[in-house]
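ok so I'm stuck.
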Amino acid sequence: MEHKVFAYQTLDSVREEAKRLDAFIPLCEDLSALSASLTVEGMTVPNRLMVQPMEGCDGTLDGTPDELTVRRYRRFASGGAGLIWFEAVAVTPESRASPKQLILTKDNLDAYKRLLDDMRETSRKTCGFVPPVIIQATHSGRYSKPVSTPAPLIAYNNPHYEKAGPLDADRIVTDEYLDTLPERYAQNARLSREAGFDGVDVKACHRYLLNELLSARTRENSRYGGSFENRIRLFLDAVKAVQSEVSGGMFVTTRVNMYDGVEYPYGFGADEKGGLAPDLTESLELVKRLKECGIKLINITIGNPYVNPHVNRPFDKGFYIPPEHPLEGLGRMYTCVKAVKDAYPDLTVVASGLSYLRQFSPYAAAGLLDCGAADLIGYGREAFAYPEFARDILQDGSLNKDKCCISCGKCSELMRAGSTAGCVIRDKTYADIYKRDVSDKQ
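replied:
not stuck anymore, here's the structure
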């Protein structure tokens, strides 16, 4: 199906297009379910709307939150979401995705404490409640760039990504290196607990290292490649290491890819018979193993925003023309989310992929809750553009279309340019940064 630019004027037009495409996009005009509270791991989430983790690339060189970081999270905190999923924080210096990615250390711990205190006080004053805050612990793997040039650390060479030819063998992480990582995740958890975060996400999505290992079928003679048991080993070991460090109500969760959008054998969630249709057999077995490790909250996503972003965040403009209608992509995302909830109804499941629908997204959010596909609804790019999205949905029953993300891709352009990420269209701060770092250099 040919790619289409967003041009919907009514909810019925979205509904009719989804029906024509046979895309699973449940829509419900009763938004009251979005206001319901939810208990997660003994903590109260005041409503069902959530800020997804979105890297700002705006820390200091030592990984401390900087002025733009504080500004961004203060805006999220005043926006009314019931849960804030803090962005990816590197577990090792070499695994930072940019020289300004956040990293939590003993030396900057107090800065994170101050940021969390500021967020909670802001939420208390503006919203009348304090949302739980989850930190995302990550190893960037092939997207590692701790200084000014890329320094990828890959699980294996993937011809879908290494189109210019295989990377040198010294870029492939050894088993001995991987053996050291669970303790680095545990160290991050200890510091996160001391900083005051409510939960830790062991990130395994979007082709970062733990996600890439899930598809490492061609990684030979390795404890972390080949068989399913080997491919999930490091992920589960990291989860268990973090579990051993949490206490006092703090919990462990994960944001995980159910499907990579890459053909077998190089993609997780791929059908071994070929093609790009998802096969969630291994994905659902992984969720089962995560449950056995004690995971009760899981944040579901698919695709790779660096290679095939149309799979998990359909866009109007980007660096390529997508091969499908955006609503087909949303239907695939919601189908994967529902598959997890259907298989494991006692799990608290977070749905992704709402921002593309703009002012109609609240009806999809309510629809996902209404049909039992998810328990929490995460907004990513929309939170950059419209940080008060949750407050407007809950108080006004709608979103202002003139504040919504227009899926133009400029926030991603900022990241690719090595700059700080934010909404160029709705926020003059980032419009000025875009002009300085992107437009004026073209």
